[in-house]
Amino acid sequence: MSFAAMILTIAWAAPVFAAGTPPPAAPDDGAPRLADILTWEEIPLPARSQQATIEVDAMGARIIVHLSPRGAATWREKASAICPRHRVEGSRLILECRSRQLAARISHRKGRASLAIYELRGLPDSPGFDAAPKTFWDPSVLGLGSSCPGDSAFARGECALAQGWKAEALRQFEEALQDPKTRRPALIRLGDLAAWSGDTVGAGERYQEAGWAGTWGRLAAARLCELFGACLGRREERRIFDPAGLPEPLRGELTLRHARALAFRGELEAAAAILTKEASSCGLAPDLCSRIAVEAMRSDRPLDTTAGLSLYLRLPDRTSGPLTFDLSQSAAEVAAALGAPIFGANVLAIASDFAPATKLDAHLRRTAELYLEGDDRVRAGVIVDFARGRLSRGALGSKAWLAIHQRLLPSKEVDAPIPGVPEAALLEAEREVAAALRAVQEAASLRSQNHDAAPARDSQ
Q: What count of other Cβ atoms lies within 10 Å of the Cβ of residue 32?
């Protein structure tokens, strides 16, 4: 039996819970299925937390619980094995977790609220920027029918899926099972529809039915690996996600899925490096690539941060996408650490229009500070003038802003007419980080070669 054929067997045969972890008794609707859970714990929330809500930032390895300020402050009395570290920011309780393969929910029993935290076997079905790529497969390119609206059941199903018409897509893909030419890709799409609805068992059955050979077998094996986690961290992982020989967009999709799997396992340097090398793949899921770049640059490991910055420089929409602000914050700090504060300041300046109102003060202040670190007093003065028109007098009177004003006082250039910071400045300043990045990447390349030469580690 091939490795791919054993994925479902391994997923179901392994123990559902870690030693000493009690399984939940009849979890409420919305909890992960028992077969998807590796470990689980439930922790009572402070009294009067019936209105509490949560955000699960799985790729960021954190859970944000929105409580009252008093309730958040009492969390120090609680203990979580899965998320052992926490900090309080006003009414937000931020739990920092040991794994990125996370799910969580709030349950209510007998008038008390509790937080259930799940550590998953496979990759989380994260919404938004963390989600697996939903790539459109042009039927005419893959030889599965004509372009939209399509002349075959599979083509019509793919076109319906692209429009978000899931019920129609389901009907067409069911019909496509009758055609031997489209049966296997239709099974994969039916599995995708089941997975997106939360039916992991149904999705796994469809993927397994698609077989293990050829193009569609390779896509099925990768999806099974993501779903149940049996190949993650094992010797077979690289082979299963290898996109060599696949046509586009399947090649790009598998590249993205591999990078996503690596990112969720904390291998951010490797995830960013894959996407930097295959940057065209990011056109299929730009938000996912941006999210991986952000998490890599936020890491406390230097090789992760430089790999994330390299990916950032390859992102086509880094100055206009929905993650522009997060990208700019992370890239600026990495660049500054590499000795390129002007680059970091330019990145922040260009992203100023994307700064949330609550963060604009700190954003502009950091921009001015980085310009001053790079001895660019002219552009620091531009930022100060910009801040005067956007921030309150009280904010501008803070110690941090007063320190910036003090550093600008000796310069007469500040009062002179000064042009704005054009977006072209970002491209000019990229030369500043190039040399530093090359040095770090050479070290990373040597490290990668040594890693490849070492025997692969199988998961326990």
A: 24
pLDDT digits (tens, 9 = 90+) for 182-233: 999 999 999 999 999 888 889 999 999 999 899 999 999 999 999 999 899 9
**Tens-place pLDDT, residues 289-331:** 999 999 999 999 999 999 999 999 999 889 888 999 999 999 9
69: left (phi over 0), alpha (psi -120 to 50) or beta: alpha
To which residue do tokens 């490096």 refer?
A: 273
> Who's near 151: CB < 8 A, 6+ residues apart?
145
Q: Strands 102-109, 112-120: parallel, antiparallel or unpaired by DSSP?
A: antiparallel
Residue 438: C-alpha distances to residues 292, 294, 435 (Å): 20, 20, 5
Please report, for residues 240, 242, 328, 431, 440, the alpha-carbon distance to residue 336 in angstroms, rounded to integers and kept in the order given.
38, 35, 12, 14, 14
Please tell me the predicted confidence (pLDDT) of residue 3: 37
- State the Rg of the chain over Cα: 25
Number of residues that this document lists for the chain: 460
CB neighbour list of residue 162: distance below 8 Å, 6 or more residues apart = 136, 148
The low-confidence residues of the chain, meaning pLDDT below 50, are 1-29, 411-421, 426, 443, 446-447, 450-451, 453-460
- Burial of 84 from C-beta contacts in 10 A (0-12 / 13-18 / 19+): exposed
Phi, psi values for residue 369, rounded to 5°: -60, -40
In this prediction the pTM is 0.83
* Residue 91 burial (10 A CB sphere; 0-12, 13-18, 19+): middle
Asked whether the beta carbons of 391 and 360 are under 8 A apart, the reply is yes
